[in-house]
Model the fold of this input.
Amino acid sequence: MPFRPGISESNIFASGIHLPLREASASFYQSEFDIDIPLKGSEELYFIPIGENTEVTMTSNWKDPSFIDAFPTKSSEISGAGFKATWQVLHFNRNFPQSWIGTKYYVDQSIDQSTPYEIAVRPSANEQKIDIGASKFGVNLLVAADHYQKSMRTSKYAVLIIALSFLIFFLIEITQRYRIHPFQYILVGLTLLVFYTLLLSISEHLGYNAAYWISSLSVIALIASYAVSVLGNRRMASLLAASLLFIYSFIFIIIQIETYALLVGSIGLFVILALTMYFTRKISWYRMRE
Done:
């Protein structure tokens, strides 16, 4: 049975496809039928319970579903392989009848509330407005964190990474009595900023994890090799590289975990601060002026 584009009556829906049942055979009304609709780029899939008994079973390999809106699931299973959910809604559970005349009941198909172009069917001014779309149920296909979101989250730690890196350079300068010029600090800071450009550009081709380690190891290698020339001490440069590797590894772990990111980050910063206070406890800051 081929469907036709558009809709024959626009009292309820503004757009869609339709099939005139009057053209179907008599046996069609007592037969089961199925429709295959390939979907691409969809963020959500919802159903409106217009049947007297609406039962929907959905199976997908999507790992992060969100079941929201009017009716909860009758049963649902979520695992690493995907999810399976079932809804069952009776016509007593909804706020509209099985049949009606007029435009009292409609489906709001607005694309965006902020746009001036609103694709929706509106009832007459003298009728009560009841949107049957408010009874929809289904699933929202959440994206836990793609490479763009992870890159954005990583950039929020930029101040922390730069501050800790400068702190390491400063402590090496103070404890080992090296003289590091402000221009050299600026070059190191610019190198740390280039990390985020590398991360975003490489992640578009190789994914976030590979891009993170390629970018971080490249930045660490560049700063460590520059430190060898500035400090003239390979041991100090190796210590600097190891410290930067620890910082970038710490940030990577925070990005990977979502539920305990704040807890792990707070504990990690506390440990870093405690270690800094411990190793600088014997420095006589006033004598260093003399």
The chain has two domains: 4-141, 147-289. Residues 182-206 form the longest helix (25 residues). The chain has a mean pLDDT of 80.
